[in-house]
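Quick one before lunch.
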Amino acid sequence: MQKFYHIVTYGCQMNVHESEKIAGILRELGYEYCEEAENSDIVVFNTCCIRENAENHAFGNIGMFKKLKAKNRNMIIAVGGCLTQQMGKADNVKSKFPFVDIIFGTHNLHKLKDYILMKEKQKKAVISIEEFDGTIVEGEKPYRTSYPNAWVNIAYGCNNFCSYCIVPYVRGRERSRKSENIISEVENLISEGYKEITLLGQNVNSYGNGTQDISFPRLLEKIACLDGNFRLRFMTSHPKDFSEELAEVMAKYPKICHSLHLPVQSGSDTVLSRMNRKYTVADYLNKLKILRKYIPDCAVTTDIIVGFPGETDDDFNATVDLVKKADFSSAFTFVYSKREGTVASKMPDQISEHISKRRIMELIEVVNAQTRCQSEKYVGKKIKILCEGFDSKKKTYLGRDEYGRMGYFESDKDEVGNFVDILVEKANGVSLIGKKV
Ligand code: 5AD
Ligand code: SF4
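Model of the iron/sulfur cluster complex:
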């Protein structure tokens, strides 16, 4: 009898891609995707612990499965991802949700197949959280769900220990895949017809870190020189490691998108130093200057945290000033979330929720005004977008241009996977609405 799976994903792109790997494992076991979790034979929660709200969200959703599980005793409920990898959290999940059948971590995702087979045979829950041992698993077969886009891990983990961040604790030290494995994965994706490849790592710029034969700019160059009709992106870049050499490579090869995600986190040197970011505002602006010397039209996006412990009004105003100066095309804004075990969690002067809320609202307004202003400049211009899908509510196709701007257009044929030129007729916030030309 056909068995069905459902995966609930929390968090970033890294997790979305990990869910594709989980789906690959489940399909190998004969499971098919089911849109409704309640009608599935196995439900996997791929959790995230980067901020408290992602954690609460996952806990809330898992809790809702108690009743379903009581009705359908054969349903397997598995919880994985970086939340379970956090100190003591697996025990927490186990005691809060005794009906959970499998608990696994980020370091043993590839063993999920064994855990499921084990669980299918036994009544007892399978709980396995492994410590980081530096291994890189090759030969995974993700079931990709983002055509025409494909994500490719180039490195895992992080060595930076930004003082607010839990990632180095739950994902372990930075380790890079061999360049030949990355390149052959990309070659396969191109031959399968994928049109946009995004190289993924917590800090792609430190790829190799002395352990591989080539640096990130050379890896990017090799991939950009592969034959085929595709474009290339990468994320995330740490400003301290962003180099002129990388800007040169980005400018030289047309397949590399003129787009860079360069998280600044704060516009105050005092805060940056306490965040352990290892650059100043002046260093950051200088990197942008170098980037724009090579690629004047490069779109830069960023991440910003407000309410970091000890952040004063002056510090916050410095962030607003930086946003105005840096001309970001968009910014992801977050309220600082205290993560147990990090250096910042022990800092005095944690900022009250109402101050953080006020600051983030002010910041969002500044960011949105800038994005709107930038979008309006595109009215009357032609942009090339890679069509990613069809919005059934708006009855339009949608996709992004190389700068990451969202474009919507109508067509009477299936355009998914095509590069389409559209003439922008209207800007609506970050979205550009146009007609095919
Ligand atoms: N609180 C708020 N935001 C955080 N980020 C990482 N850790 C935290 C935290 N504890 C943000 C950073 C990072 C992005 C992926 O998430 O801005 O760049
Ligand atoms: Fe976290 Fe900093 Fe590493 Fe990014 S670079 S994952 S913010 S520790």
